[in-house]
Write a structure and sequence with these properties.
Elements (H helix, E strand, L loop, with lengths): L10 E8 L6 E8 L6 E10 L2 H7 L16 E8 L11 E4 L2 E3 L8 H4 L10 E2 L18 E5 L4 E2 L6 H4 L5 H11 L8 E5 L3 H12 L3 E6 L5 H8 L3 E4 L3 H6 L4 E6 L8 H5 L1 E9 L12 H6 L2 E4 L5 H13 L6 E4 L4 H9 L6 E5 H4 L3
Parallel strand pairs: 10-11, 10-13, 11-12, 13-14, 14-15, 16-17
Antiparallel strand pairs: 1-2, 3-4, 3-8, 3-17, 4-5, 5-9, 6-7
Helix pairs in contact: 4-5, 4-10
Cofactor: Zn(2+)
Pathway: Aromatic compound metabolism; phenylpropanoid biosynthesis
Protein name: cinnamyl-alcohol dehydrogenase
């Protein structure tokens, strides 16, 4: 028999949860664990809305466990620290992204040992996952959070907390592949597929690394926005055969942020020999993989999933140094269902962020 959500832990909490695959969110009383020796507790100030949240509340990936309190782009202020915590103190600004746990033996886990907790076989997600104690994790659409200090990052004072929150998912999702596939070198030509929550941040990071950046989109109407506002150098309409033909073989790498089913062949054709196409979007159905152009061009297709904690801290510090933030629309908590409807229609520029502390009401 399952425990009562309000009493399975000693500390009361309040948030908004989805109860079924309708995805409708509503007020939810639950509980969180007491602050442990290596934990930090934080009052949540802002939480970004990721497209993954929409997938999860509607069970579109088939792994949802209800009730779900979504949210993994969390920023707040530390309210309590465990006795063994040296990294943070009460009053510090902190961020929590997609991870709140991994294996407990980092000496034997190659991923954790190398700083890639995001690839640990026992990785624990911030919500809709089983924690070490056997209870379900609840995310940032809530008033407070307790997390092991290893999975929190110091949030720079110079980064606005509302505009910085999405970097904890969207930012690290694009920063890590740029770094690890050597696409962060000045002078590289980088393509960014899609100008949404991930894509617009990818443009900013690639430009900060000194790259020439081309946005690739199905929407001609986004050209002015991509170049004049976000900072891209060029814009390609993927449905325009002449434009795509002219750009063939010109790019060192492409970050593909699209989470809908789409053709890979036109993108592969844009790559130089030994070019790299990195997928960070997660379509619900398999994509068709054309092998011949990979073989003939020595090209690579790879995937990348968020990043480890060391890289997440490095990313947010890099963002602070280069004034990189997300373009956001700040909303009240009780607007969240409307926001999800709009997100499903791509009607947001480019990330919703919930003013949790200012608008959540128990």
């Amino acid at each position: 028999m399952s425990k009562n959500h309000e009493t399975e832990h000693p500390k009361k909490a309040f948030g908004w949860a989805a109860r079924d695959s309708s995805g409708v969110l509503s007020p939810f009383n639950f509980s969180r664990r007491a602050t442990g020796d290596n934990d930090v507790a934080l009052k949540i100030l802002y939480c970004g809305i990721c497209h993954s949240d929409l997938h999860a509340i509607k069970n579109e990936w088939g792994n949802s466990v209800y009730p779900i309190v979504p949210g993994h782009e969390i920023v707040g202020v530390v309210t309590e620290v465990g006795p063994k915590v040296k990294k943070f103190k009460v009053g510090d600004k902190v961020g929590v992204g997609c991870l709140v746990g991994a294996c407990t033996n980092s000496n034997s886990c190659h991923s954790c040992k190398d700083g890639f907790e995001n690839y640990c076989p026992e990785m624990i997600l911030t919500y809709n996952a089983l924690y070490h104690d056997g209870t379900i994790t609840y995310g940032g659409y809530s008033d407070w959070l307790v997390v092991e200090d290893r999975f929190a990052v110091r949030f720079p004072d110079s980064v606005p907390m509302d505009k910085g929150a999405p970097l904890l998912c969207a930012g690290i999702t694009v920063y890590a592949p740029l770094k690890y596939f050597n696409l962060n070198e000045p002078g590289k030509h980088i393509g960014i597929v899609g100008l949404g929550g991930l894509g617009h941040v990818a443009v900013k990071f690639a430009k900060a690394f000194g790259a020439k950046v081309t946005v690739i989109s199905t929407s001609p109407s986004k050209e002015e926005e991509a170049i004049e506002h976000v900072g891209a150098d060029e814009f390609l309409v993927s449905k325009n055969a002449e434009q795509m033909q002219a750009a063939m073989g010109t790019m060192d790498g492409i970050i593909d942020t699209v989470s809908a089913v789409h053709l890979l062949l036109p993108l592969i054709s844009l790559l130089k020999s030994n070019g790299k196409l990195i997928l960070v979007g997660a379509p619900e159905k398999p994509l068709e993989l054309p092998v011949f152009p990979l073989i003939m061009g020595g090209r690579v297709i790879a995937g990348s999933c968020i990043g480890g904690m060391k890289d997440t801290q490095e990313m947010i510090d890099f963002a602070a140094e280069h004034n990189i933030t997300a373009e956001v629309e700040v909303i009240k908590m009780d607007y969240v269902n409307t926001a999800m409807e709009r997100l499903a229609k791509n009607d947001v520029r480019y990330r919703f962020v919930i003013d949790v502390a200012g608008t959540i009401k128990a």
